[in-house]
Amino acid sequence: MSQPSSWPLTTDSQRVVLPRSLLQQLQRHPLSQRLYPLSYGYYHHADQHAITRNAHSDYLLIYCVQGQGICATENQQWHISAQQVVLLPRAVKHRYWSSKHDPWSIYWSHFDGTDAQHFMDFIGHNDQAAVIHPGQPQELHMAFGELLNVHPSPWRLPQALLMCQWLRHVLTLCGEQQLAPQQRQQLPLEAIQQYMQQNLHRTITLNELAALCTMDKFQFSKKFRRATGLTPLKFFTQLRIRQACQELDQTTASIKQVAAKLGFDDPYYFSRLFKNVMGISPKHYRMHPRQQEP
């Protein structure tokens, strides 16, 4: 796989490189083998960030949120500014660097899997690269933030599977740029997610969420799914299960207590839902052998 840059991290920056043993599991697992991250991160005000690759063995996404930079392949060069996405396919020689006068801040991910090329085709790239303006920049920012929040430490397969789901969500949002302006659905997703986060302790309804946007539940659900790639309740369920993972990792609370804290009266239903999302029961999640970081 292509190595990420060794740019020295600042306090507000983050770089995650998955260990080879975990990547081998993701390449074999039916829930992840079609699309999985190799590495990802966020570089804030990346002064003097630059890299050249003559051999590129995976796929790369860069999302510029502030500042400016340059990306070049053998045949073309692009000036990159805020709210632009760069997608580089496998085997394309490239180089990119941050502006000296206005260094960029970027989210990025190296990724692979049998669906990687399908996403590149869906988003619409030429043989060299794609530079696009995503139709939902705020939602893309939020989705990358969720990907970074799932960073498993120590390394565990169930959380890595959740990373794969958020990566798929990120790439789906990049495809939103193909929609005509009148088709782009503007929802207050940050406010909706904040409401969900504040109510992880109970069950919320589709009507309740739709009322936040003064829409009927059918219109709201359609717009939310178009914007995020997930139904509203499935999105909410993933947030609750992610919180459950944190409780199981960081506390000694029983599974029944964790379920009750998140508003599940029936711990057996909670366990089934947890397994449906994570691919493993909460009991086995807590007992799962932990791998050391490299």
TrEMBL record:
Gene3D superfamilies: Homeodomain-like (1.10.10.60), Regulatory protein AraC (2.60.120.280). The keyword Nucleotide-binding does not apply. PROSITE patterns: HTH_ARAC_FAMILY_1, HTH_ARAC_FAMILY_2. It comes from the Bacteria. Keywords: Activator, DNA-binding, Transcription, Transcription regulation. Pfam families: AraC_binding (PF02311), HTH_18 (PF12833). Residues 190-288 form the HTH araC/xylS-type domain. One of its GO terms (molecular function) is DNA-binding transcription factor activity. This is AraC family transcriptional regulator.
